[in-house]
Amino acid sequence: MKNSLPAFELTVVARHITYRKWRTFLSVGAVALAVAISIVFISIQNGFSDFLFDIVFRFLPHITVSPREGEDYIHLYRGIVDVAWAMPGVLGVSPSLAATATLAYKDKAENVAMIGVDPVEADKISDINNYMVEGDIGSILGGKRIVMGLALAKKLKVKKGDTVQAKFPNAVPASLLVSGLFNFGYKQVDEAVTYVSLDTARDFLNEGDVVTNIDIKLEDPFRAEASAKELRSFGYNAKDWQQLYPDIVRTLAFERTQNAITMLLLMIIATFGIASIMNMMVQEKTREIGMLMAMGASPVNIQRLFLLESGLLGLMGAILGCILGFLVSMQLRGVQIQNAMGQMMNLPIAINPMDFVVFTILAVLLSIAAGYYPARKASRLDPVVALKG
Fold it and tell me: Three-class SS of residue 213?
């Protein structure tokens, strides 16, 4: 019996599992619920991470060079542009001149950010043309023209081809033809950001050849920190996207930490359930354990038998939990939520097959760990005492 085949242990384990179906159901169900909830949580977290990174990758610059402290503008900015283009992995370098303006049309008026850009370079940063619903960003080069968000146009009650008045204290008033409308789908952008040419912005501010920012787009956003550090070594005030948008970094870190703690607690609760049931089983099967020992089963055989049973319960629960988690995650994809920009969107769900593998392995390992004490207790039983029950 000491050299018994695993088939024997599997037979005993199968009998234990099928003998008390309700206990098996509780053990498997506890693990399945923990794994399913964990799969749903991690899928939502992955979805939100992808959503936030999509904003970084598509709309936002990865590095921004700003004026030095105490200065309003960057002078001699063309040298910085040349240095930026010389760095590896640069997709776009866009100088811009930002101004605050009040746009008025008839009896409507709104304060907006009026950003002077080179349309070709600005499009490389934010992919603006892909979100134009009328006209194109290049139209701002045709004189005193402006491109605005569709939401802002609705608030001002203007349409493409209308002329709005731009003014602000200490600025030179200008009449601007609406040459295009965009719709990014983000309320704060669509209602408050407009684009004009660099020349138009300079005329409005009555400034020379200066800019307020130089935005840089990289092939790999995660190289931004090193590239920004390189620019700072030249004396430029450069910040990477993690410094520019700390809320995104904090949100991702908080979500990961919160979900990791929640998932770990769920798995621990499930394994305690298995430990309790296995301990009860050892007490119930005392006589049977004594008989197995009397037939020649070693303490190692007994311990391995109960550990195998714990692991099998964990595996069954993990498989069922993965199936449930996948089905629930797929259903949640249709749930509508309101994002931070005030827009309705589908709940972001990103299902990663590797998560199923990780949670299955984790569930099995924790289940085996939960069964270790009952298994050790069973292996230390005195055969004579065990046979007496």
Answer: strand
